[in-house]
Specification:
This protein is an alpha/beta fold. The chain has eight helices and twelve strands. The protein has a seven-stranded mixed sheet with strand order 3-2-1-4-6-11-10, sandwiched between helices. Strands 7-9-8 form a three-stranded mixed sheet.
Length: 256
């Protein structure tokens, strides 16, 4: 039905937003009537806080690499870090340095809630940033469960920074081995649009910026099924740890 010219319109009408789209903007427009506020839904922050009470299987590769970085780790930039849930979770498993600054960048509503929660919990190492450019010069750029919510691929965003991060840790992101497409994630009470970036292109573009792949892993506890599109469905999300070749932050700007 999806592929035949006569039945394709009927198929698209029947499945609604349960299909693939050419861009994140297109997917967002399709799911808007059913999104129930999407990322802005208060249940979003509650969901992530509850999930971070204990480490999930996919957190252990991140903890492994984070532990190795601790002696020289001064600033973490947590892209899409919600209200700082990973800081609270990882603090239970690692002895984070007292001088460490953990910056979270997210939606304004989450930043406000995160700042209030940090004050309540006396989490003095937790900071909240309103701009992506604050990632410039970070020791570690952490993108856990967030890379796929941005219209622009993360390598393009990193290339814009005046000083690129020394290390990049990507976790819990759906990737495809085919052409990049957009889809919709079901999250219980709400729905959000997301991008499925091509795995090989992502790795290649980071390599062009001077980063090397240190480790990669699968995230079997997360999957994305798109009915009628088995070629785009993701059986397991992915994680990566990358570091710059010379081991230090480098000047960024307009290009590689």
């Amino acid at each position: 039905m999806r592929q035949r010219r006569l039945t394709a319109p009927l198929y698209r009408a029947l499945v609604g937003h349960h299909q693939v789209f050419a861009s994140l903007h297109e997917a967002s427009a399709a799911v808007a009537p059913y999104a129930n506020q999407g990322h802005h839904n208060p249940a979003n922050a509650e969901l992530h806080l509850n999930l971070s009470q204990t480490a999930r299987p996919s957190d252990y590769p991140a903890l492994f690499h984070l532990r190795a970085l601790l002696p020289a780790l001064h600033r973490v930039f947590d892209l899409g870090g919600n209200v700082g849930n990973l800081f609270y979770c990882y603090s239970k498993y690692l002895e984070l340095p007292q001088e460490l600054e953990w910056q979270v960048h997210d939606l304004p509503s989450n930043l406000l809630r995160g700042a209030a929660l940090a004050k309540e919990c006396h989490a003095h190492r937790l900071r909240f940033s309103e701009t992506w450019m604050d990632a410039s010069g970070a020791d570690l750029l952490l993108a856990s469960g967030s890379l796929h919510y941005f219209e622009h691929p993360l390598p393009e965003m990193v290339a814009e920074l005046p000083v690129r991060p020394r290390h990049i840790l990507i976790n819990r992101t759906p990737l495809t081995d085919g052409p990049p497409v957009a889809a919709v994630q079901e999250a219980g009470a709400f729905r959000v649009a997301c991008m499925l970036y091509n795995r090989q292109t992502l790795i290649r573009d980071f390599k062009r910026l001077g980063y090397e792949m240190v480790d990669r892993w699968q995230v079997p506890e997360l999957s994305l099924d798109i009915p009628g599109y088995p070629e785009h469905s993701v059986r397991a999300y992915s994680g990566f740890f990358l570091t710059h070749r010379d081991g230090s932050a480098i000047a960024g700007g307009s290009g590689p």
